[in-house]
Design goal:
This protein is an alpha/beta fold. It has twelve helices and eight strands. It has two domains: 2-169, Rossmann fold; 174-270, 6-phosphogluconate dehydrogenase C-terminal fold (Orthogonal Bundle).
């Protein structure tokens, strides 16, 4: 029986706890919301609760610790529990941005920390929206960092046991890719909704179908996304500049009397996008 502590039983952490095979894993849960702990225990998603990491360490010589929290919370908890680094415990996170965490951890060169990012998020949050098989066939990014093979393989095995499609990337590649494909779209959504509000337009009354996806993104956790924007700021700034330049380029084409150039530009952009 493998022992695992899931810290943060929201959408991702709750889904991990619910999806783990209880014949293989003894699942401990830790969350600041006592009602969430109570519900997770009632659901048999977790077998035991922990108020502090020390409680998990006291009962186990090794195991897995999953931080299913925002990047700043990961740093805060590890800062108070540095003794978990470079031990027999394999540690991972589920954050969408890794830079602030890696900058904090660099000085310790932790041989037991493996970065993970389930590409399975939602604008919905909380334990009540978590479910079993949440990770089934979903992409899961994993970054080796300083980790030894035994810890890397243990975390890799955790995700494959949840039927995730595991894809290794370096931290630099991860931040670069997801800045453009995830972080920038969320930033644009917030900026767009603010632009509409600044014009005193009733969004519910006058929004067309194309706006619905932007609205959905702005319903994501503001605490989490503030953390992500600050963590991956440098990459997001570069991608935002490129985005603005492309917007100006399209507007410049639109200002021409001949529409063929704009038409070709839009067709070129659409090509290869399914």
């Amino acid at each position: 029986m493998k022992n695992i502590l899931v810290i943060g039983l929201g959408l991702i952490g709750g889904s991990i706890a619910k999806s783990l095979n209880k014949k293989e894993f003894n699942v401990f849960g830790m969350d600041t919301n006592s009602q969430t702990i109570k519900k997770a225990t009632s659901d048999k998603a977790i077998s035991q609760k922990c108020n502090h990491i020390e409680e998990f360490l006291a009962h186990n010589n090794d195991g897995i610790i999953v931080f299913a929290t925002s990047p700043s919370t990961v740093i805060k908890i590890i800062e108070s529990n540095r003794k978990i680094l470079n031990t027999n415990f394999s540690i991972t996170d589920v954050s969408s941005s890794k830079l602030n965490i890696s900058k904090f951890l660099d000085k310790y060169e932790p041989k037991n920390f493996v970065f993970s990012h389930p590409v399975a998020g939602s604008h919905k949050s909380g334990y009540e929206n978590s479910y079993k098989d949440f990770f089934d066939q979903k992409k899961l990014i994993i970054s080796k960092y300083f980790s030894h093979d035994e810890h890397f393989q243990r975390i890799h095995g955790l995700w494959t046991s949840l039927k995730a499609d595991v894809l290794p990337l370096s931290i630099e590649e991860h931040e670069n890719f997801f800045s453009a494909t995830s972080h920038l779209p969320h930033l644009i959504s917030y900026a767009l909704i603010k632009t509409i509000k600044d014009k005193d337009i009733d969004i519910e009354k006058f929004s067309a179908g194309g706006l619905s996806e932007f609205i959905r993104l702005t319903k994501s956790s503001e605490t989490l996304w503030s953390d992500i924007f600050m963590s991956n700021l440098e990459n997001i700034e570069k991608d935002t500049e490129a985005f603005i330049n492309n917007m100006h380029e399209l507007l410049e084409e639109a200002s021409k009397t001949d529409s063929k150039s704009l038409l070709k530009k839009i067709q070129s952009i659409k090509k290869g996008v399914s």
